[in-house]
């Protein structure tokens, strides 16, 4: 899926000359940046050519990785309409371009996917879950793009992997909304079960506990909006910005009351949205029957309640006024 086709690609001569050398130098990157960004826009053809050059060169400098990730993130997240919205077709196109044999094979390709998830306001869950799965395999096997350039022990979670996981699971929130889905929570639990006896980086326990608590106590605060709704909202923003510009001109001409009224309306609307969000948070912090049942089945599934799982229970005990019976039973069992 997507527009990328090797047999139809028209690669410019300056890129072919770099590919003939088999490696990309810092000097090459400086020239590439000057060619790609003079207009501030990465075109579809330029995105295709960047993928081609990345595949054509076995060696590349760090500056190339930075340019590749920056330019392709700009293309997919910032320059397509609606801005920041990756739909199912867009996710399929990204996967088609990055995955050669069903796996992520290089560190810069992994970082590109993480960057897209991190910076987009909406990304299909399947893309996030796939990348989390790649990080999980890398942790357990000690191989893969996460371990690129590092010698780390298989079965141990290091700081680099924690950083990637944090960006992945929190990257698709917008306007302060953060969501953890059931499938993400399941993957994190599976990973925790697999590394529970290892000497993991201290940040793992914090990430795991916060993420699971987020799922069971704030899961309803976020839901991806349909593409049509995002398009309508973006069009409304453009019209609003035009209207605001007109009102500002009126204000500059002496009609100060018009702009003051407009600002008062905006402040009132923002206050109403904050109040609605606070109410939603309060409601979400009440564990539902389904959430409590899932957590009671998930904790201790490997035969024992470990320290990270105890920390989750303690977090729930401290935050929830009326604990579900299944959770109270778990707390008593873990004591």
Structural features, described:
- 66% of the residues lie in helices and 1% in strands.
- The protein has 15 helices and two strands.
- It is elongated.
Give the helices and strands as they follow along the chain: HEHHEHHHHHHHHHHHH
The gross shape turns out to be elongated
Numbering strands along the chain, what is their spatial order in the largest sheet? 1-2
Give Rg in angstroms: 24 Å
End-to-end separation: 53 Å
Low-confidence sequence ranges: 1-6, 173-177, 219-224, 280-284
Beta-strand percentage? Answer: under 5%
**Average residue-wise pLDDT:** 78
Structural class: mainly alpha
Query: Could you tell me the number of beta strands?
Result: 2
Q: Can you lay out the helices and strands and say which pair or pack?
A:
Layout (H helix, E strand, L loop, with lengths): L12 H9 L1 E2 L1 H11 L7 H13 L2 E2 L1 H17 L9 H11 L8 H13 L5 H17 L17 H12 L11 H14 L7 H16 L8 H26 L3 H29 L4 H10 L8 H13 L5 H10 L1
Parallel strand pairs: 1-2
Helix pairs in contact: 2-4, 3-4, 4-6, 6-8, 7-8, 7-9, 8-10, 9-10, 10-14, 11-12, 14-15
Main attributes?
15 helices; 1% strand; mainly alpha; two-stranded parallel sheet; disordered N terminus
A few lines on this structure:
The protein is mostly helical and 335 residues long.
């Amino acid at each position: 899926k997507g527009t990328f086709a090797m047999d139809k690609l028209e690669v410019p001569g300056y890129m072919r000359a770099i590919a003939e050398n088999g490696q990309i130098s810092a000097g090459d990157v400086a020239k590439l940046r000057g060619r790609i960004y003079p207009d501030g826009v990465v075109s579809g053809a330029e995105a295709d050519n960047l993928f081609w050059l990345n595949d054509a060169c076995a060696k590349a400098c760090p500056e190339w990785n930075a340019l590749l990730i920056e330019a392709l993130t700009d293309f997919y997240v910032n320059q397509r309409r609606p801005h920041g919205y990756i739909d199912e077709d867009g996710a399929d196109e990204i996967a088609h371009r990055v995955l050669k044999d069903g796996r992520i094979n290089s560190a810069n390709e992994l970082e590109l996917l993480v960057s897209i998830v991190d910076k987009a306001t909406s990304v299909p869950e399947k893309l996030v879950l796939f990348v989390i799965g790649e990080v999980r395999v890398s942790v357990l096997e000690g191989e893969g793009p996460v371990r690129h350039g590092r010698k780390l022990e298989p079965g141990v979670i290091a700081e680099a992997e924690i950083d990637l996981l944090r960006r992945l699971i929190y990257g698709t929130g917008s306007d302060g909304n953060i969501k953890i889905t059931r499938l993400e929570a399941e993957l994190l639990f599976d990973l925790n079960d697999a590394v529970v006896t290892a000497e993991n980086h201290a940040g793992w326990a914090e990430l795991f506990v916060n993420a699971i608590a987020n799922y069971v106590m704030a899961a309803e605060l976020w839901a991806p909006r349909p593409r049509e709704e995002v398009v309508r909202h973006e069009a409304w923003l453009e019209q609003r910005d035009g209207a605001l510009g007109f009102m500002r001109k009126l204000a500059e001409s002496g009609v100060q009351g018009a702009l003051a009224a407009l600002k008062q309306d905006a402040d009132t609307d923002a206050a109403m949205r904050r109040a609605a969000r606070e109410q939603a948070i309060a409601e979400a912090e009440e564990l539902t029957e389904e959430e409590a049942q899932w957590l009671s089945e998930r904790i201790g599934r490997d035969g024992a309640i470990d320290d990270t799982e105890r920390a989750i229970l303690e977090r729930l005990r401290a935050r929830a006024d009326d604990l579900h019976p299944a959770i109270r039973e778990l707390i008593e069992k873990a004591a």
